[in-house]
Design brief:
- The chain is an alpha+beta fold.
- The chain has 3 helices and 17 strands.
- Strands 4, 5, 7, 10, 12 and 16 form a 6-stranded antiparallel beta sheet that branches.
């Protein structure tokens, strides 16, 4: 009886550990991060989505974002920001980070959607302005950027407002997990949009529950036979 109880206890411990394992959001398509995302290094006629970090722990007030998904509506056009003076505090928790990168060979535009496995939590697309506004993309590199990648740090990294004269940049939530984008850039600038998603956990497998129940039933049956 004692050995059976030990077996049940060990099984519970294994399942409890499994239930807390976290994994990265999957994206479509998936592209490995290059060693540099500076201007004129990774150029393409289309926008690329890179997976950056997984399971990043953030404290209350540690990160300011341009948009919280909970504060915007599906289909609402979220424009690039040039004169950023205020923002939203990202709630304490754990997040996965991704970066949309658009660096055309010459001037160009890119449109499309990216779908994430987990729900979108926040969006960062501003990087200061000529009047000294905060560079939120640069600031968030230290939290969500990959240590093995060098990022562009200039003002032109941001997504610009439509009035800049190049068509403007915007993103929209198609649903909780899908982001639509429209980006326009030129040989002097690139466009970056950082997307933060929730971190999901592996649920306790149904088979594990059945096994645990069987062990308990077996222990009770043996106990009855010994009494």
């Amino acid at each position: 009886m004692y050995n059976i109880i030990k077996m049940i206890t060990a099984t519970c411990a294994v399942f409890a550990t499994t239930a807390s394992i976290s994994f990265a959001s999957t994206i479509s398509p998936t592209t490995p991060l290059p060693s540099s995302l500076e201007r004129n290094v990774v150029q393409s006629a289309t926008a690329t989505l890179y997976a950056e970090q997984t399971d990043v722990t953030v404290g209350a007030g540690d990160v300011i974002v341009d948009y919280l998904a909970s504060s915007v509506s599906v289909g609402q056009q979220l424009n690039g920001i040039m004169n950023f003076r205020s923002g939203e505090n990202l709630a304490a928790g754990k997040y996965d980070s991704f970066l949309i990168h658009f660096d055309p060979i010459s001037a160009g535009s890119a449109t499309g959607t990216f779908t994430f496995e987990n729900e979108i939590s926040a969006i960062i697309l501003s990087n200061g302005s000529f009047d000294g506004a905060r560079a939120l993309l640069n600031e968030s590199d230290s939290v969500f950027g990959a240590a093995s990648t060098t990022y562009e740090e200039t003002l032109g990294r941001r997504a610009e407002n439509p009035w800049i004269g190049f068509g403007g940049d915007w993103v929209k939530l198609v649903d909780a997990n899908t982001l639509q984008y429209s980006l326009t850039s030129n040989i002097w600038n690139i466009d970056n949009v950082r997307v933060l998603t929730e971190v999901s956990t592996v649920p306790l497998p149904a088979g594990g529950l059945l096994l645990l129940g069987g062990l308990v039933a077996l222990a009770l049956q043996r106990r009855r036979k010994t009494t």
